[in-house]
Design a protein that fits this description.
mainly alpha; globular
């Protein structure tokens, strides 16, 4: 497992690194499979954590994208947001 350094990201998004260890899968196909097979409660936890993420997450990702070398934290959090997008697509509609 890749080490992720909480001090390498803003404090407001450091808690997301715990989720990134689970959901930050850099292979799109494998990530899609993991989200599809995941327990619905785990998927909802992903949605609940990333959906209302602070703007500092997106600002930090943009700033990090401009650097010469991607950090482990940048890759993990970027992949976490991709898993979030996958979960949004796969989430069953809420009944009326």
């Amino acid at each position: 497992m890749i080490e992720l350094d909480r001090s390498a990201v803003p404090a407001s998004i450091a808690p997301l690194l715990d989720l990134a260890r689970t959901w930050g899968i850099p292979d799109d196909g494998y990530c899609s499979d993991v989200v599809a097979a995941a327990d619905p409660t785990a998927v909802q936890n992903l949605l609940d954590a990333v959906g209302p993420a602070p703007q500092s997450l997106w600002d930090w990702l943009v700033d990090e994208a401009a650097t010469a070398e991607s950090s482990n934290e940048y890759v993990a959090l970027t992949c976490l947001t991709m898993a979030f997008d996958e979960a949004l697509v796969r989430k069953p509609p809420v009944p009326d």
